[in-house]
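hey team, just a heads up i'm posting the complex here instead of the shared drive bc the drive is being weird again. everything in one block, sequence lines first with there labels, then the predicted structure for the whole assembly after. its two chains so it's a bit long, scroll down
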Amino acid sequence: MKKIMIVEDDKTISEELKNLLDNAGYESIILKDFKNSVNIVLESKADLVLLDINIPNFNGELLLKEIRKTSNVPVIMVTSKTNEIDEVLSISYGADDYITKPYNPTLLLLRIQNIFKRIERTSDCYFYQELEFYPTKGILKKEDQEVLLTKNEMIIFSYLLNNKGNIVTRDDLMTDLWNNEEYINDNALTVNISRLRNKLSELGYYEAIETRKGQGYILI
Amino acid sequence: MNIKKYLKDKLIDLIIILVTYIIILLILFVFKTPHNLIIAITFIYFIMNIMLVLINFFRKKKFYDEFLNNLNRLDKKYLILETITKPNFLEGELLYQSLYEIDKSMIENIKKIEKEVNDFKDYIEMWIHEVKIPISSLTLLCHNHKNILSKNYFAQVKKLDNYIDQVLYYVRSNYTEKDFSIRKISLDKIISEVLLKNKDDLLENSIDIEVNLDEKNIYSDQKWLIFIINQIINNSIKYKNNTKKSIIKIISKKCHDKVILSIYDNGIGIDKEDIPQVFKKSFTGNNGRDSIKSTGMGLYIANKLCEKLGHILEINSKKGEYTELIINFGSNNLYNLND
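-- predicted structure starts here --
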């Protein structure tokens, strides 16, 4: 399980962030002692740090600078300042991504996912039971049987696969699609999902995507 | 300064000179002074007085002509003191000294007001960053409890955030000389961010989106541009036409080495007589008065920000048919030098 360190001084936000990340299948820890923040972050062996710029004792940017002296842990900077200069500065200090408050929680999760994917790009092949999935080519393969996915179907299947066994809401799927510049409407999403189901059926997976009424979809 | 007006102003002096002459003449007559002497005295007396008047006139004329002339040509009249030479007669010196004092006091006052405005602006910026924290909390809370909360909660929080951004950018557009940084940015990311922000509204109102970006690279400030486009999209949603299928088309293209971004909607459009006024502060027009709540600030701020960034914001519209906002980013070549 991936470990994420939350560096945020607002109690409600840090607790809700923990809630969000835990539900998304991460293990998250909240930094409480801001006096020893550098050591705690480094010793926690976290896989990713969510770092707020306005934290007590030490400015987030300075903390990032200190972390970067010894560690390459991915860092996402979070700030309520809407200033271009802060963003440029954070990236130059070595932040992997930058997000402005208030952010869309689904988008935050997507960005975290993307960072992990970027780091672990060992192969461009993912597995779902006996299926091989090549997201870059958009191909689903079972032995020598191949099915081509459209970009939208590919985005939807990737998302479901990443959250296998968890309920995925239509809103989550929409956010991912729109984030990939596919601005489709509700009907199109329904059509895309049923096409994806048909393609999975062709490969012998008839009930892979289940509908949970009023909640969303789940990849079994 | 002309001599006629000057003499009219010095009428009393002239009368005194004349009266003095008459008195002298009378005395000379009473003492039976020879005629030749009277003529000589008269001659000397008038030559001396005319010389006196003329010397005084030209001394003043030199100073006041320069003064008035420069004042006329100056755009910022309060800088007059910097342009004139210090006069060498009493009245002029008094005027010069007074102007110096007046300027000084005015500058002090302006400095004071400037400081107050800056303090206020700083406070607003700080307050906005503070208030974004509870809004972030609310966003997360809404997301984490979406199975028990209605979607309306999230929509209201989003609205709140949007109004707060309006204040921030109003302050930025009015009170800052330079609070932005222009660099090369990609339009697709910006459009995607704005559309994602408005995703729920767009889906709920079943507005179709068509994006076609032929030219993606532009030079602008990312945050400011997101705000500007967000205001435009917000208007498109607010003023959609309920009698037909709504659509928003976003197109960018290169046009004689200039990049333009067009945001088109098939909404209710704007009355012809209202179009020239839509960028004015607090203008709501017929659309605003008719039904939908409108502050009249969105496009005003967007236009101001565009002006500061060096972009040109234009609007085309036909009542009942469409509204199209065009951002003209100007030539990329201008900035390439600094790359």
